[in-house]
Amino acid sequence: MRTTAVVIGAGHTGLATSHCLAALGIDHVVIERGEVGHSWRTERWESLRLLTPNWLTRLPGLAYDGDEPDGYMHMAEVVAFLERYARLVNPELWTRTNVESVTASADGYQVTTDKASITCSAVVIASGGFNIARLPSFAPSLPVDVESLTPFDYASPDSLPPGGVLVVGASATGVQIAEEVQRSGRPVTLAVGEHVRMPRLYRGRDILWWFERSGLHDERWDEVEDIARARRVPSPQLVGSEPRSTLDLNALTTGGVRLVGRLAGIADGRAQFSGSLANKCALADLKQGRLLDTFDEWATCHGIDGVLEAPERPAPTRLPESPDLVLDFAREGIRSVIWTTGFEADHSWLDLPVFDHKGRLRHDGGVVAPGLYRIGLTFLRRRKSSFIHGAGDDACDLTRHLADHVGAATDFWQDTGLRSVAVR
Amino acid sequence: MTEVQVKSTQNGVNVEALLGARNALGETPEAGRFVWRATNEWVHGTHSRSSVRSYYGLGAEHEHKSGFDFEADHPLVFAAEDNAATPVEIVLVGLASCLTAGVAAVAQNREIQLNSVKATVEGDMDIQGILGADPDVRNGFSNIRVTYDIDADASPEDIEALVAQSQKRSAVFDIVTNPTNVTVEVT
Questions:
Q1: Which of A192, A244, A294, A334 minimizes the number of CB atoms within 10 Å of its CB?
Q2: In the predicted model, what is the mean pLDDT of residues A327-353?
Q3: What angle do CA A124, A130, A131 make, to 5 degrees?
Q4: Using a CB-CB distance cutoff of 8 angstroms, which residues of chain B are in contact with residue A229?
């Protein structure tokens, strides 16, 4: 069959894209491997809630309208919100359909699925930015009797074997899982590399309120000094919880979690940690201070100091006297390792020469090639791009670009001579 | 040399004193706690000067016989002035010096006469790390290779064993192969 545009994925970004395409009168199909919000349904641990407050949960044409604006949605609520949004957008939606490949065709692209093949002028990839857990190269060196889990394998502390747990990585996923597992009674060691520290509330307001109101979340990819670096910044140490509490390393230490440096390697049944913990924590403390300075300056500049609580800065990160450098799995009874070492997007089905030397998708603010778009990656077009409320502006921009393109579609791949490379 | 039949090995290392110290430390282990020190001062550009004067050990402060100064800089290809060796080269120097001292000490203890000991040290580094060009590349060495050329009155196996034992007891080998907690403060 033929259509103008194919949207791959019916999560928040795919549905927002569909909403914008419909508004522009562009006919399109949305293809979804499972049901609406598949990743939110099937690839999240049980207790997870959004990091963003409910009042910020909005997509083009639908905003949270419940009676807990300051709460944080559980995954079931996120799925319900997306189902409601899907009914509102009401696209031509093919669920339970797997995209097998996207290749160049004579006048655009060919999207091959396990149901049918579609030719189209444009493709929007909205298949999520966090499909694959990224593990360090030495992960296979774990002792065979130590269970190795990615966040996709982790459901709750009950899914772990009894005994100690090593959580590797102190971004949002790592600190949340570390806290929950420690609370379940299993002793947790947390390996801490570069991390981003943030208080949940600052001067009485949710930290996301500050990002949103100060305009920091709207900062564009073509405005920041080093976008490659900005896209690599780990997710902040935040949790959506009731009460609204800060989940930084100090909170974890208070809860009994043992902090060690970045995991440097595993050999002979022992893990070795970098001696750089003090430096990583000092960097995160300083960076947090600069962020809060920015917010304070913005508040003063806008004359709202009076309606906010007084600035009160979080205490510096408390460090162990002499952080452990070596951990013997057997001797310390560490029975499982959870790799919260980051995620990456899966583009394995994209058969086009659009990747850099390290296999990462090349794109300029989500524009991959004429008629080919990506949405829903970290800092794609704005600092908020990977958040639910960031999908709207990006979808709006990219579908406008798409409309211009299909208005004057040419065979880009033919013109550049890349088509023969592209088609396998 | 062959006409002189010397029973005693002369590598210039006072092994008796070292073994005596090891026994003495069994009685007073706190005397074994040393603090090594260096000071460093920026000169200009990437050029700096370090100085080693005193250290603490055996329960007391000590002064080196004389002070020792070390300069460090970066090479012309780094757009620096190349006034001295690069800090990473000084690390290689530290490793080689430590291993060679160990070879001499172990040879003395095993009564192996050394005639010459030469080492070459190479460290591989991808400078995309320190330039921040690729976050997957570490700043430091990805690999260090030390090659010893030793002429000694011993079998090749005994010489191999000397070098192996020297690594086992080397402070710098331990420092570069195992993590160390490092704190850097500003006064």
A1: A294
A2: 97
A3: 85
A4: 132
**A81, two tokens:** 């919100």
What integer pLDDT is reported at residue B178 of this predicted model?
A: 87
Domains of chain B plus CATH, in order, are 13-78 (3.30.300.20), 86-178 (3.30.300.20)
The amino acid at residue A363 is H
Whether the pLDDT of residue A348 is over 60: the answer is yes
A313 in contact with B at a CB cutoff of 8 Å?
Answer: no
Q: How far apart are CA A289 and CA A216, in angstroms?
A: 15
User: Which positions in chain A touch B132 (Cβ < 8 Å)?
Assistant: 229
Per residue in A76-110, is it b (16+ CB within 10 Å) or e — as a string? ebbbebbeebbeebebebbeebebebbbbbebbbb
Q: Which CATH class is domain A2-131+345-422?
A: alpha beta
* Whether A420 contacts chain B with CB within 8 A: no
Q: Answer yes or no: are the C-beta atoms of A346 and A127 closer than 8 Å.
A: yes
pLDDT at A131 over 70: yes
* Angstrom distance (rounded) from CA A55 to CA A65: 8
Tell me the nearest-neighbour CA distance from B113 into chain A, angstroms. 36
Q: Do B184 and A275 touch (CB under 8 A)?
A: no
Tell whether A261 lies on the interface with B, counting CB pairs under 8 A: yes
Cβ-nearest to B182 among A264, A275, A326? A275
Asked if B135's CB is within 8 angstroms of A232's CB, the reply is yes
Q: Which range has highest mean pLDDT (A82-86, B4-8, B154-158)?
A: A82-86
pTM metric for this prediction: 0.88
Q: Higher-confidence residue: A126 or A411?
A: A126
Distance (Å, whole) CA A134 – CA A124: 24
Look at residue A420 in the predicted model and tell me its pLDDT. Answer: 38
The minimum CA-CA distance between B16 and chain A, rounded to whole Å, is 34
A273 with A327: CB under 8 angstroms?
yes
Averaged pLDDT, B54-59? 94
Q: What pairs with residue A267 in β-bridges?
A: A270
Q: How many CB atoms lie within 10 A of CB B22?
A: 10
Among the residue ranges A62-66, B17-21, B114-118, the one predicted with the least confidence is B17-21
Position B7 scores a pLDDT of 54
Which stretch of DSSP H or E encloses residue B171?
Answer: helix B171-177
DSSP string, A36-92: TTHHHHHSS-TT-B-SS-GGG-EETTEE--SS-TTS--BHHHHHHHHHHHHHHH---
Residue ranges of the domains in chain A? Answer: 2-131+345-422, 134-339
Whether the CB-CB separation of B43 and B34 falls below 8 Å is answered with no
Q: Which residues of B touch A (CB under 8 A)?
A: 132, 135-136, 178-184
Residue A21, number of CB atoms within 10 A of its CB: 25
Asked if B184's CB is within 8 angstroms of A278's CB, the reply is yes
A325–B132 CB contact, under 8 Å: no
In the prediction, which pLDDT does B4 show?
Answer: 47
